[in-house]
Amino acid sequence: MDLYNQLRGEGDPDKRTELMKQILTIGQENFPVIGVSLPGDTYYIAKNNMRNIPQTMFAAYLFPTPAPYDPFQWYFAAE
Q1: Which of 56, 59, 66, 68 is CA-nearest to residue 39?
Q2: In angstroms, what CA-CA distances link 30 with 24, 36, 66?
Q3: Which residues are bridge partners to 46 per DSSP?
Q4: Residue 62: exposed, middle, or buried by beta-carbon count in 10 A (0-12, 13-18, 19+)?
Q5: Which position has the higher pLDDT, 64 or 9?
Q6: Could you count the other beta carbons within 10 Å of the beta carbon of residue 20?
Q7: How far is CA 51 from the centre of its chain?
């Protein structure tokens, strides 16, 4: 905070730049890193005689599978 207060009161652009670099360095060294984890690949099971199913089904929180794929249009072919 002392560096930030100095930055706010500094009139020289070069000194402000140097103070800001110091602040960013401190932040970089002390910032906790939060890893990102993505869900694994999904899969689905369909019978061999089931038709009109897309090759790829996307899954997401706002795109709940299988509803957007209109399962009412899927059908079983006569064997």
Answers
A1: 59
A2: 10, 19, 43
A3: none
A4: exposed
A5: 9
A6: 14
A7: 33
The structure tokens 């899954």 sit at 59
Residues in the chain, total? 79
Contact 38, 64 (CB under 8 A): no
- Kindly report whether the global pTM for this prediction surpasses the value 0.85: no
- Residues 40-68: pLDDT tens digits? 777 777 788 988 888 877 777 777 777 77
Q: Where are the domains of the chain?
A: 1-36, 38-79
List phi, psi (to 5°) of 75.
-150, 165
